[in-house]
Amino acid sequence: MDFPHLHILDADQFSRVDLENVLTGTARIEKLLGANKAFGLLDGKILASLFFESSTRTRLSFETAMNRLGGRVITTVGFQFSSISKGETLYDTMKMIEAYADIAVIRHPVEGSSRIAAGAVSIPVINAGDGIGQHPTQALLDLYTIFKEKNAVEGLRIGFVGDLKYGRTIHSLIKMLRHYNVEIVLISPVDLALPESYRKELRRENVKFEETEDIKALWDCDVAYITRIQEERFADRAEFERLKDSYTINRAFLLGSRKPTTILHPLPRVAELSTDVDDMPTAAYFRQAAYGVAVRMALLMLCLKQEIPAI
Ligand code: CP
Question: Mean pLDDT of all residues in the chain?
């Protein structure tokens, strides 16, 4: 299975073939996990898990992925427990990581930082979220979830709801969806609209999309991708307070849907998605987060140029 990349930094780097290879690799990993045959595939390899911004799913699923493959993990969480707090640069930090580990995953509050980290080293670097920029591995697990829930991506009408301005998972998934024949519905307050650079790209790639503030547009979608308003990205607190309750999706609202709309959310959720949705069969967000382990196992294997066995 060919994977022509050293690093995973941006959704743009993935061709349609690359995406298919990640999806196929993940399906293989799921089979290996089911047969208890994944352990040992990365025996002796070390993952450096560098999280300079809070995370539950991404950090723990990467670390679980490496552990399930038989590798080891070294980790640093938060600037305060790294020598960056003493003034060390990210470049120098990465020079040390290269000496200690075979592969690194990094989350950082500054857009573009994973590219700086990758530029310092010859080991693979995976972007686990860089500020309001990209979160490509989340987008890959989102894509995998759509395949698992809907059997295909082609032909789907996919609605994105919430903070399209600051939501990096949306930015990455939209870039990947340009490789498929889909219709995209962008639902947000005007002040949280998808940045023009992404809309320009959709136009250039002839992806059908529409924009609205009306949440009822979800009722005609096959997939609803809901996101929280990204409180930590707002420079103006009053602006966040004004926008934070823009939408709340609950069970009663979803019962109005004209299709069996699959509900995705990258999590964490706050007010935008009610817990009374959780036991609906179409609520796929906890399954989505769980797929993160298999997807990230496949990515660790691909980045380290290891063949994923087919069984
Ligand atoms: N979806 C996601 O990135 O979750 P965490 O912030 O918990 O890693």
Answer: 96
Q: pLDDT per residue over 222-245, tens digit each?
A: 999 999 998 988 989 999 999 898
Q: How confident is the model at residue 38 (pLDDT cuts 50, 70, 90)?
A: very high
> Which of 26, 58, 76, 227 is labelled catalytic?
58
Q: Which atom of ligand 1 has the smallest separation from the CA of 292?
A: 1
pLDDT band at 180 (very low <50, low <70, confident <90, very high): very high
Q: 28, 57, 157, 265: which is the annotated catalytic residue? A: 57
Ligand 1 contact via 58 beta carbon (within 6 Å): yes
At 1, the pLDDT band (50, 70, 90 cuts) reads confident
Cβ of 267 below 6 Å from ligand 1: yes
Residue ranges and CATH numbers for the domains of the chain are 11-133+292-303 (3.40.50.1370), 136-289 (3.40.50.1370)
pLDDT at 230: 87
Question: Cis omega before residue 268 (within 30°)?
Answer: yes
Q: How far apart are CA 235 and CA 63, in angstroms?
A: 32
**pLDDT value, residue 232:** 87
CB atoms within 10 A of CB 290: 13
107 is catalytic: yes
**What is the per-residue pLDDT for 270?**
93
Q: Which mutation among 50, 52, 56 tests ligand 1's pocket best, with the greatest number of atoms within 8 A of CB? A: 56
